[in-house]
Structure formats: C-alpha cells, structure tokens
Design brief:
Layout lengths: L2 H16 L2 H10 L9 H11 L2 H12 L1 H12 L9 H14 L3 E4 L5 E5 L7 E7 L13 E3 L2 E3 L7 H16 L7 E7 L9 H6 L9 E5 L6 E6 L1 E10 L3 E2 L9 H20 L6 E10 L5 E2 L2 E10 L2 H24 L8 E10 L2 E2 L5 H12 L5 E5 L4 H5 L4 E4 L4 E3 L7 E3 L3 H16 L3
Parallel strand pairs: 3-6, 3-7, 7-17, 8-16
Antiparallel strand pairs: 1-2, 2-6, 4-5, 5-19, 8-15, 8-17, 9-13, 9-14, 10-12, 11-13, 18-19
Helix pairs in contact: 3-11, 3-13, 4-7, 4-13, 5-7, 6-7, 7-13, 9-10, 11-13
C-alpha cells in the first residue's frame, strides 16, 4: 500500500465526518460513478465497525496468518479443478473448512462446498464465496513454481486465491470469537468458468437452493474494484448439416459452408447496426468455426460457436433475435437454391445462458463496500463483469464481486502468477464487508 495514499484517504474520511450534510452530498454528487465516494452514513458505519476491539484483533490475526494463507493457497492450487471436475479440490476444501471450525460443512447436489457459521439471531443469511473451478483442462500441470516472492501456476489467481482468503477469514473470526447476528455461509462454488454456465450459483439460488439475503463473491485480486453489475451472455453451438458429396460430381447440392457464411454475414450486419445505437455495451462474436472433409468435397457439416454479451437483458435478447433470424434466412436461401438432393438442416444448441442484472450505486451493499475500500486507503472503482454475482443480481438479490488482495497477472493462461503484495488488505476488506452485512453481535 502507498503510505501517502492511505494518509490522504484516512484524512478524507475524517473530514467527511465533520462536514455538514449538504457539503457531503455536494461532494458525493460531484464524484464520477466509476470512481465514487461512499455516502456519509456508510462511511460512519464502517469507521465504527473497524474500530471495534474484536475486529482489530481479527485484522491482526489475518496479518499473523499470512504464512498459513500462502501454504493453503499453494496446496489448493496444486489440486486440479478442471471444468466439471472440481470434486478433488471440493473434498479438500471441505476438509479444511471443518478443521478451521465451521459449524457444519456439506457438498450440495451441484458440487458446491458450503460451510455454515451460525449467527446469534439468524433470520438472515449472507453468502460469501469463491469458485473452485479453473479454465484449464484435465492434465494441465498445476504445480506451483516459486520465484522469490512470486507464485506461478495456472489458476493461482483465478480463483484459488479466494479459497485461501475464505479459510483465513473464518479462522480469524473464530480465533477472536467474533459473533455475527445473521447466519453466514462460506462456500467454494462450481461452474463459474466457461461452459460451467454458473451452475453452482444457479443451484444455490434456484428453487431447490437456499434462502440467501445477500451475496459477496471473491474473484480476482484488486482491492479497489467492485463488480456491481452483471454482464449477461448467450452462447450457442450451431451446425448446418447435409449429405455432403464430391465437389465436382455432386455440384449443385446444398453446401453447409455457404449457409454458415451467409448466416455470419447477416447476423454481423444486423447486430452491428443495432449495437451502434445508444445503450449499455453489447457485443457479439463468432468465436470458433469448423467442418469439412477435404478440399475436393462438399462438406456434410459446418458449425460455429458464438457468444453475445450485454449488461442489458433487452439488448442481449435483441442481438440473439438477429442471430436466429440470420440462421433461418441462410437456411432458406441455400435450400431454395439447390439443384438436387436433400435440404440442408440446422441444429441450434444453447451452450450457456448467464443472466444480466444491475446493482444501483446507492444499494447498501455497494455503498458499504465502497466505504470499506476508502477505510483501507483505496479508491472504489465500480464496474460490470460476468461473475457469480450475475445470478443473484438477476433475481434482485444484493450482490457484489470483490478482490481477494495481492497482485495477479495472466488469468486463464499457463503463465498465471500471484504476488502477495498487501494481500492481507483483501482478506481484511472481505471480513469487514461481511460483518457490515451480517451484523456484529
């Protein structure tokens, strides 16, 4: 942490507490949405909470546990957790939660590891979690290489750091006997990455899931960033199919590649015109294509995988509609142009459906996290992203995604690395926002 930055931030918080309401409101209104100041009542709340004797002891305990946090981080990183195969890491994480002292630990139908810490009053439940899975396929070497103060391995930042943070946070709470008013769930979730399609979160917040009143995801390392808006996405595997044939002898039959090319062109043209209109950022991508047998063959299949994203569900649905229209238009044109043979067929399979959702800047959970960041000497930066928070945000449940501290680079690459630069700040911030939501008894 930059000591000069901390002095300035702390001085500002002290000043905020002495300003008149009108002066504070004026300062707040001048702040940019992406680089904003917490409202004064939340600043006061976090200042009071962080000055509590037990919270101070918990902060000191977190600092004392840095070597253990590092060891847990390495241990869990070296247990592979490829997409849809998180079981080994889940079992170990559950065991570690039991050792640290959760009241109860279980693994649900989707594979989420859930630990419960009972509150003094109950009636309200706060979930704080990090995801177990990584993007790396089975067989990837996940052995951690130590280079001075740097830990290097696939998945070490995204999101194994969060699991180590949760273990240390829970141990610190138990060590100083912190009691929350609400029940707390601490979880390692499955299916956050890629085709996992947030299946862990969909289980937790689905009809067979749990009653959760607020959610905090730990993903990434930045201690200034707050994700309070969910970028939704639709993903499809699309295939045109035919009988195929010889490029000369069967010329005149339907060609799957021609249909695919037409569909891409039509979708791109319509989607591009639409997203140029004012509104939340919306994107589309033809990400993977394939098909064909040889240069002298009419292909029997042409396929593609596509991705579209937006903060706005309305805009996402609109771009999806352009895709469906383009696919049907291309299908019809190619079939109508054939000289002989059977018609082309089309298969459309949805690979992923991540809901979008927006949290208001004035939402208490967001405001409290902004105040937490200011209290630790940082400047809150609000953003939109696709994280586990998408699911609760889409349901109107308060949710944010925050960083776990430290410095990481190369997420989703084999060269991913992590340095524990002010790493304790991320854990302390996670504890503080949890206590602010769950209530300190």
């Amino acid at each position: 942490m930059n000591p000069n930055k901390k002095v300035k931030a702390t001085g500002f918080i002290a000043l905020m507490l002495t300003l008149s309401v009108s002066q504070v409101e004026a300062a707040y209104m001048r702040a940019d949405r992406q680089d904003s100041l917490a409202q004064p009542q939340y600043v006061k709340e976090i200042v009071k909470l962080s000055s509590n004797a037990k919270v101070k002891k918990a902060f000191a305990t977190i600092a004392d546990l840095e070597a253990e946090t590092r060891a847990n981080h390495i241990l869990l990183t070296e247990i592979p957790a490829p997409p849809f195969k998180e079981e080994r890491r889940a079992k170990k994480f559950a065991e570690m939660l039991r050792v640290v002292g959760a009241d109860s630990v279980w693994i649900d139908a989707a594979g989420n590891v859930i630990a419960k810490r009972k509150g003094a009053k109950g009636g309200k439940t706060i979930l704080i979690e990090g995801h177990l899975d990584t993007v790396f396929p089975e067989g990837t070497d996940v052995k951690v290489e130590t280079r001075g103060d740097t830990l290097a391995a696939p998945g070490i930042g995204d999101d194994t750091r969060a699991l180590a943070v949760l273990l240390t946070m829970l141990k610190a709470m138990n060590a100083v006997e912190i009691q929350t008013e609400a029940d707390v769930l601490i979880a390692g979730t499955v299916g956050e990455e890629g085709q996992g399609d947030l299946r862990g979160m969909k289980q937790l917040f689905g009809k067979d899931g749990l009653k959760i009143d607020a959610h905090i995801a730990i993903d990434g390392t930045s201690t200034d960033r707050i994700v309070n808006r969910g970028v939704g996405s639709h993903r499809y595997h699309i295939a045109y199919k035919s009988d195929g044939g010889h490029s000369y002898g069967s010329f005149g039959m339907v060609n799957t590649h021609v249909a695919l090319g037409k569909a891409i062109a039509y979708w791109s043209q319509d989607a591009e015109a639409y997203i140029a209109q004012p509104g939340p950022k919306t994107t589309y991508s033809v990400s993977v294509i394939g098909g064909g047998t040889s240069v002298n063959s009419i292909p029997f299949e042409a396929w593609m995988e596509v991705d579209m994203r937006s903060e706005s569900d309305e805009r996402l649905q609109k771009v999806d509609g352009y895709l469906q229209s383009a696919l049907q238009k291309a299908l019809k044109e190619v079939n109508e142009g054939k000289k002989f043979g059977n018609d082309l067929t089309l298969e459309v399979k949805m690979m992923g459906n991540r809901p979008s959702g927006g949290g208001e800047l004035t939402a208490p959970l967001t405001q409290r996290m902004m105040a937490v960041i200011q209290q630790s000497g940082g400047t809150p930066k609000l953003s939109a992203s696709s994280t586990n928070a998408n699911v609760p945000l889409s349901l109107g449940i308060p949710s944010i995604t925050i960083g776990g501290g430290g410095l990481a680079h190369g997420a989703h690459s084999l060269g991913e690395w992590f340095v524990n630069k002010d790493g304790k700040v991320g854990i302390q911030n996670a504890l503080l926002i949890l206590l602010a939501e769950a209530g300190l008894n």
